[in-house]
Design brief:
- With 292 residues, the protein is mainly alpha-helical.
- The protein has one domain: MetI-like fold (Orthogonal Bundle), CATH 1.10.3720.
- It is 75% helix and 0% strand.
- It contains 13 helices and no strands.
- The chain has helices at residues 10-44, 58-65, 67-99, 103-118, 121-132, 137-142, 156-180, 185-193, 198-209, 211-226, 229-236, 247-256, 260-289.
């Protein structure tokens, strides 16, 4: 008696179930992200949506030569170079101090540092405007007779970086705490017996074992730095002080002006920069951790 072939084994059925569950998310990503991003390439290489004449890389060249784009690129790079390393260093310092406390205090303070992540941007922006704005607390305390709008001066970049660090430092602290919890305490005890000081223990044990976590924190900080535009826009509007005019401002203004060709070209340039940064981070990570 012949038996019917089993076309679907357990592994195949399980794979089909997983694919079916992931299909709605995949369709959403395709429809709202990948397909529009691919279609924008067509907009970047034509003269306008009506004529649709192929112009090649003309819009990319004009975008690079645009003074507003160059200003936004420089400011975005300045913001990242200042806020990301400072955020990482401060998060590592706070995480190291919290690690030496008892678990109750550590958990309470960790939750407190994470609270800015769940505060709505509108409420947060209103709070910081009441601190740094023209009628804010800073002016009332230090510049009562000659009030200045700190968000409209050369110091605006430091104000925005401070707000960025305040909001995102808790996430980095939690990542560093998870990395610190994986370091065996016996290493510190052995190093103390051998006569190593606190600084030597931190460099040769703590920092060395936190290298994978540091790369993760760095990667996430880069991503979060590109999302700081929301707070900057809510604080200062579409045309802020020139010191905090970012690439996202340029693209937002191109969208408002219905200049989709410049918007598409700028978005591809920004994407290329992000991809290069990610590739460099993973390459350095492989070299440092000796995965090759």
């Amino acid at each position: 008696m012949k038996t019917k072939p089993k076309f679907l084994h357990y592994g195949t059925r399980r794979e089909l179930l997983l694919i079916t569950l992931a299909l709605p998310s995949f369709i959403g990503v395709m429809v709202f992200f990948l397909i529009p991003f691919a279609m924008s390439l067509h907009m970047a290489v034509i003269d306008n949506p009506i004529g649709r004449n192929f112009v090649g890389l003309e819009h990319f060249a004009r975008t690079f030569d645009n003074a507003a784009f160059q200003l936004g690129f420089r400011n975005t790079l300045r913001f990242m170079l200042f806020s990301v390393p400072f955020n990482m260093a401060l998060a590592l310092l706070i995480a190291t101090l919290l690690q030496s406390t008892n678990n109750i205090i550590k958990n309470i303070l960790s939750v407190c540092f994470l609270l800015p992540l769940v505060i709505p941007s509108g409420s947060m922006v209103h709070f910081w405007r009441s601190i740094f704005g023209f009628n804010g607390v800073i002016n009332g305390l230090f510049f009562a007779y000659y009030p200045v709008n700190l968000l409209n001066t050369d110091h605006a970049m430091f104000v925005v970086a401070f707000i960025f660090i305040w909001k995102n430092i808790g996430f980095n602290i939690v990542l560093y705490l998870s990395g610190l919890s994986l370091i065996p305490k016996e290493y510190y005890e052995f190093a103390s017996v051998e006569g190593a000081g606190k600084l030597a223990q931190f460099w040769h044990i703590t920092f060395m074992y936190l290298v994978p976590t540091t790369f993760t924190v760095f990667f996430m900080s880069i991503i979060l730095s590109f999302r700081a535009f929301r707070e900057i826009f809510l604080l200062t509007g579409a045309h802020p002080h020139f010191s905090i005019y970012t690439l996202q401002h340029y693209m937002n203004n191109m969208f408002a002006a219905l200049n989709y060709q410049r918007l598409a070209s700028a978005s591809y340039i920004l994407t290329a920069c992000i991809v290069l940064v990610v590739i460099a981070v993973f390459y350095i990570q492989r070299r440092v951790l000796r995965y090759d």
